[in-house]
Write a structure and sequence with these properties.
The protein is of the alpha/beta class and about 120 residues long. About 45% of the residues lie in helices and about 15% in strands. The protein is built from five helices and three strands, in the order αβαβαβαα. The longest helix has 21 residues. The two termini are about 30 Å apart.
């Protein structure tokens, strides 16, 4: 829920202390019976979504429907085979010939690139 809370906080303080950017590691878009997209549509803060392809709380097809409706810049880094915690199963790591550390390093590089772009603009 940290990603969702961060989005709510950025919206709540936007007029007093604007947040320069958000990195959402596994955003919980899908609730028990609803889509949790209202806060995303209200965001004015640039956001990077780091999402796993096996995340049941944020199916990438649903996120793809929400992103164009967002007012803020929003980027996506996909973790192939990643779950909600961005972890790969052993068989996925073997199939992709990667270690979890390599996957994490790629996500970190995407995050640093996003932050660098925001800092330079």
């Amino acid at each position: 829920m940290g990603s969702r809370v961060g989005c709510h906080l950025a919206n709540a303080i936007r007029d007093h202390a604007p947040v320069q950017g958000l990195v959402c590691l596994g955003y919980p878009l899908k609730g028990r019976s609803s889509l949790r997209d209202e806060v995303l549509r209200e965001l004015r803060t640039p956001v990077l979504f780091v999402q796993g392809t096996r995340d049941p709380l944020c199916p990438l097809a649903l996120l793809a429907e929400v992103r164009p409706a967002m007012a803020s810049r929003n980027d996506l880094h996909v973790v192939q085979g990643g779950d909600h915690s961005l972890q790969l199963r052993k068989r996925d790591r073997a199939e992709l010939s990667v270690t979890q550390e390599e996957v994490d390093a790629t996500s970190l590089a995407a995050t640093l690139s996003f932050i660098s772009e925001l800092a330079s603009s």
